[in-house]
Design brief:
Elements: H1 9-33, H2 38-46, H3 65-78, H4 80-93, H5 106-124, E1 130-133, E2 149-153, E3 156-166, E4 174-181, E5 191-197, E6 203-206, E7 220-230, H6 241-247, H7 250-254, H8 257-276, H9 291-320, H10 325-353, H11 364-372, H12 381-392
Parallel strand pairs: 1-4, 2-4
Antiparallel strand pairs: 2-3, 3-7, 4-5, 6-7
């Protein structure tokens, strides 16, 4: 069941669905205990999924953004926490898979190619897992406001600061840390990504993750104290993070869209199966035969398919025209739609199916709790709508100063 350079998109999605089905029976226990889904990630490793976005000529499956979105959706039907945490790995790998990076000229281009090759080899041959550490306490995901900073020293950099919502922070082999340079003097902060190894003596993780939803992501707090990072672990170019995030928003905003589509799909599947055997109170009549029930289920189907269509269309635009205004607007529109949909369809399902579905013996209450988390992930619902509105009205949304970052 391992994917690789010879795996077709169709087969990749079949394997994603098989993995999601394998995750599903484990999801409740991981959620209840708030534990990292080790078995699920071992399955992902064994199936070659840590290289899902690695280009085929580097030994990976070379999935497009659209195929990746669909794969994440299928994983999330089984367990949303696993799918969301897995997406954090791909936040590191996905931007590097851009074929334009393979043809950059000069010494910088050569250094970037060497860095890409190292990351890809770690993912494919080493089966290594990457995490992302961008948010901070009291600041959230506003990269222009972060306080974590780094100082250039001989042979590399020294980082000091605190990071929050670091999914898989204790379990990933590497963590990509967002920090700003102490030499920062411009009006756009010189923010960079630096790769920190798990066993770095300058890193401490606080196990403080006890949350409403997405409990198995184990998104704990990371403390960095005089944390040395060698110069070859600089992620691409120094001080370019805000420019890259503002110009090409799809990885940082839309890569998780498949997760919330998966939750909504799981809700609809639950409702369909649950209502099939339910009877109207005091009768032998099936609830599914009630026209009102049919109407409400029809609305769920229609809303889900509308959000799926918008999300897939946005993902296709990423593959065709990454970084265009049309693409970036479409990604924000899709992020808003899947976030609203996942919350609404899970709440509607609870009302439709009744009080027995709020028990933890059924997955619907977990779907509801996980769905709520979408609205607080970058970009928030309000940021998404403001972005779309600003673009429609002709305002700048493609530069750091014009963005919410």
């Amino acid at each position: 069941m391992e994917i690789g350079p010879d795996t077709s998109p169709e087969r990749l999605l079949e394997v994603s669905q098989e993995l999601g089905r394998r995750f599903a029976p484990r999801a409740a226990a991981y959620d209840r205990d708030g534990k990292f889904p080790e078995e699920n990630f071992q399955d992902l490793r064994d199936a070659g999924f840590l290289g899902i976005l690695v280009p085929k000529d580097q030994g990976g499956a070379g999935a497009s953004f659209l195929v990746y979105t669909k794969a994440l959706e299928r994983l999330a039907i089984g367990d949303a926490s696993t799918a969301l945490a897995f997406n954090m790995h791909n936040l590191a790998v996905g931007p590097l898979a851009d074929p334009r990076l393979a043809t950059l000229p000069g010494r910088r281009g050569s250094a970037i190619r060497d860095f890409r090759t190292w990351v890809f080899k770690e993912c494919v041959a080493g089966r290594k897992l990457f995490a992302s550490a961008a948010s901070e306490p009291g600041i959230g995901y506003r990269l222009s406001k972060i306080r974590t900073h780094y100082t250039p020293v001989e042979g590399g950099f020294v980082i000091n600061g605190v990071k929050s919502f670091v999914s898989m922070g204790r379990h990933a082999d590497y963590c990509i840390v967002a920090a700003r340079s102490e030499r920062d003097v411009g009006d756009v902060p010189g923010t960079s990504f630096l790769i920190v190894e798990r066993d770095n003596p300058g890193v401490r993780i606080d196990d403080a993750w006890d949350t409403l939803g997405m409990r198995a992501t184990c998104s704990n707090t990371m403390h960095l104290k005089d944390c040395f990072v060698p110069s070859q672990r600089l992620y691409l170019l120094e001080a370019m993070v805000l420019y890259n995030v503002a110009r090409e928003t799809h990885w940082y905003v839309g890569s998780c869209n498949g997760v919330y589509l998966g939750i909504a799909t799981a809700v609809l599947e639950f409702v369909t199966n649950y209502l099939a055997d339910r009877k109207k109170a005091g009768t032998e009549d099936r609830l599914a035969e009630d026209p009102l029930i049919q109407h409400r289920v029809g609305k769920m189907c229609t809303d889900l398919e509308a959000a799926r269509t918008v999300t897939y269309a946005a993902a296709q635009l990423v593959d065709e025209a990454p970084g265009s205004l049309e693409t970036n607007v479409a990604i924000h529109r899709a992020k808003y739609m899947v976030g609203v949909l996942a919350c609404e369809i899970s709440a509607d399902a609870i009302r439709l199916c009744g009080g027995s579905t709020i028990f933890k013996s059924k997955p619907l209450e977990r779907y509801y709790r996980d769905a709520i988390c979408c609205s607080v992930m970058p970009a928030s619902n309000d940021d998404c709508l403001t972005y779309v509105g600003k673009a429609q009205l002709g305002f700048d949304v493609m530069s750091p100063r014009g963005s919410y970052w």
